[in-house]
Amino acid sequence: MNGKFPQHFLWGGAVAANQVEGAYQADGKGLSTSDLQPQGIFGAITPRTAGDSGIKDVAIDFYHRYPEDIALFAEMGFKCLRTSIAWTRIFPQGDEETPNEAGLAFYDRLFDEMAKYGIQPLITLSHYEMPYGLVKRYGGWGDRRTIDFFERYVRTVFERYKHKVKHWLTFNEINMSLHAPFTGVGLPQESDKSAVYQAIHHQLVASARAVKACHEIVPEGQIGNMLLGGILYPLSCKPEDLLETQRQNRDWLFFGDVQARGYYPAYMQRFFRENGIQVAITEEDRQTLRETIDFISFSYYMSGCVTADPEQYETARGNILDMVPNPHLASSEWGWQIDPIGLRYLLNVLYDRYQKPLFIVENGLGAKDCVEADGSINDDYRINYLNDHLVQVAEAIDDGVEVMGYTSWGPIDLVSASKAEMSKRYGFIHVDRDDAGNGSLERRRKKSFYWYRDVIHSNGTSLKDRR
User: Fold this and answer.
1) Mind listing the pLDDT tens digit for each residue in 87-131?
2) Which residues pair with 430 in a beta bridge?
3) If residue 70 lies in a helix (H) or strand (E), which one and from where to where?
4) DSSP string, 367-416
5) Tens of pLDDT along 343-370?
6) CA-CA distance, 416 to 424, in Å (whole number)?
7) Which end of the chain has the lower number of beta carbons within 10 A, N or C?
8) Is 173 noted as a catalytic residue in this protein?
9) Which entry of 21, 129, 291, 362 is annotated as an active-site residue?
């Protein structure tokens, strides 16, 4: 493992505002779409009423406890922390003319705290939430006016934090809108394909506008996209399985193609035509899309298989996608298949396709942890999972792939996105809170905390090839 990770590799962790901050109405914050999903992105959309509560309303109270948490990240040696700005802290309804100063001031304090320890922020502009006011008044991303509201928001935060934040991402897992449209684009779950793809188009145009604004306002900065890296293998060597696998991989690679290449690929034109999908794309939109991202970022948790005869097989659910299980892989407690080699394969696929730097901004193992009588948490299963994936990252770097960094998902326990659970834990740091919201919120270092500290301090040379 010696010397495979670059000298300035950005080691760290990743969280999202709506899964850690809490304080869901503090300091003028408006309601977001996430606030209306108290049971997670697969739960019902529930209007808020006076006196009700949900686990994300407090989450792990990062809004008030961030100095303690940043200090723990620094103790591990983090070079980078990925988090998101809650759009509704800056523009509570989404369409205001002027931003909310209290919200801007919170992120000033957060970024200043990170700077004390030399931790670089990697900031997602929209992570699984948007102002509910824009959904209620305009129909979310289905309305072209939302592009302008988003641009006002991003230009505001670029101007405010241009001396503090140099790495930005536009939309978290942008391709997931195909599967969870309310979470992704603010549309009803039952929306037809034309409506969803039109909203996605508006979001792609907004992403390109954000790229242009970042290059203008933060010229020394870099801005990337963020894909849900749902890489798929053919279940067999049947040509029909191979062709179907290519088609399904293109479902999500399409988003990277537009954001990295600057235009809609021909295969999507055929897909729209054959499925009767109508998307209004103006000449101005086409010009705007030419503003392409600087790097590709993505999440990776599992791979899956594809067959041209799927009705013969059961499926395995990941965070968003249903996939045919790979008979050669083991699975986590939540049924997510564990495939470290898939990460090396995905890195090579993306680098071959785009020839842009790559950033792994989510990867981790959700598991039920046990606090021993002496207070220790011996999460060797998490250590093994992360070790094996990072060994494959090193192999990809040796293959010639340019990898900027690695931020593990959930370096501190947080509320899961899929079902708003605390029991599905990812962190190196345990948080005393259960699925019912009970607990002291005390932070506690797990065994993996010290393991990851050693990985960072050794720049990956402490990793063990267990193959």
Assistant:
1) 999 999 999 999 999 999 999 999 999 999 999 999 999 999 999
2) 444
3) helix 62-76
4) B-----TTS----HHHHHHHHHHHHHHHHHHHHT--EEEEEEE-SB----
5) 999 999 999 999 999 999 999 999 999 9
6) 7
7) C
8) yes
9) 362
